[in-house]
Design a protein that fits this description.
Layout lengths: L8 E5 L2 E6 L4 E5 L2 H18 L20
Antiparallel strand pairs: 1-2, 2-3
């Protein structure tokens, strides 16, 4: 057993926060950011238990600017 670090991408949809792990593809939600991350952790652990990953590549997170007509 080992500990691995994954990325959580979070956005808000109405009353819930949706959290996604891009390395594995798991998604979960919660009423708070902490709850959504906790649920995502559980979903990811269960997924990896069922479908072991040989190697998980790290996602690259960045930002960019786009011109938007207001």
């Amino acid at each position: 057993m080992s500990i691995q670090t994954f990325t959580a991408v979070i956005h808000k949809e109405e009353d819930l926060y949706v959290a996604e792990c891009p390395e594995v593809g798991t998604i979960s939600q919660g009423r708070t950011i902490d709850e959504s991350i906790s649920n995502l952790k559980e979903a990811t652990e269960l997924y990896i238990e069922e479908f072991p990953q040989k190697e998980v590549s790290k996602s690259i997170m960045t930002t960019f600017e786009a011109t938007v007509n207001a």
